[in-house]
Amino acid sequence: MTPRERVLAAINYQPVDKIPLQIHPSPGGLYEHGPKLLDLIHACGHDFGNVATWTMPEPPAPEDFDPDGRYHAVKTDPWGTTWEYRIFGVWGHPIDWPLNDLTKLDDYRPPEPPPCEGPEFDADRRTAAKHLADGYFLLGGWGSIFETLHSLRRFEDVLMDVALDTPEINRIEDMIVEHVEACAKRSLALGVDAVTFGDDYGTQSALLMSPTDWRRFFRPRYQRLFDLVRRAGKDVFFHCCGKIDPLLQDFRDLGAKTIWPQLPAFDLRNLARQCRDLGLAIQLHPDRGELMQHGTPQDIRDHVHRLIETFDTPSGGSWLYVEIDPGFPYPNVEALFETAMDLRR
Q1: What is the mean pLDDT of residues 19-39?
Q2: pLDDT band at 142 (very low <50, low <70, confident <90, very high)
Q3: Residue 72 near residue 64, CB atoms below 8 Å
Q4: CA 227 to chain centre
Q5: DSSP at 70
Q6: Which of 14, 18, 75, 26 is nearest to 46 (CA)?
Q7: CATH hierarchy code of domain 3-63+109-344
Q8: What phi, psi does 65 have (nearest 5°)?
């Protein structure tokens, strides 16, 4: 099998010749562990592209450190939200939201989506064509309609506004959906195999809102986005952290083919059974909290083997996802990559 054929088989619950693998080159992990982590990635390889082209991230600028040498950056993104960052390569916390005052809504403008024409697009299309010609699966886009929403307005206010179904929160969300839709159209124009979306709707024990509110406010908007991708004959990937059991059927009904959940929030045997019954393929991301930060290398080897067995990965329907964050002891990082390589031999 080519890497692309392997991923397509996994998505469609067909047997694979070896365990499919996806690696994300997290800047935070690379910055902490340095070139030795990049060497591990190069030695391992994955099915979603040629990792030989990956390099070390640019280090933070000198002005991004406190006088005592601790990383501390404050940056404003294209949406107008100001973020404070305390760990390089890790998502920060918003400290100023452009739409806390809703009287500013009439004058607010979202960032321009990336163009579907011009030199930059043409260069990206050539890169995408080479990626596919080399036999790799091409995953495009990253669209968030809830997380972007609560980066524009305080989280607790967004939850209240959604519950009350205010006209203002609907205007803001429709504006976000239009932007995400434009980004998805660009990914489709590049010829991707699938478009990925992601929003976190769960705590460690329950949904952040009632399923009724979620289905009223968010589901029709995802339907619009997912239908765009499905009409183009491509697959939908969805990432969602937390305890989201009540929404798995919704995501499959909407047309998602894969789900990337937060595994420690679930009983894994029940999750494997539920996803197999739904035909919803799953990205297996080993716990980056307790396991990767505080476990032993043997704990990690044992855990990955249990994941592969529980989800019956050789029969299709799942693949291993690897992302190295700051705070992972390097022996644990080595154990994760070595296990992945052993499984793929």
Answers
A1: 97
A2: confident
A3: yes
A4: 20
A5: -
A6: 18
A7: 3.20.20.210
A8: -125, 145
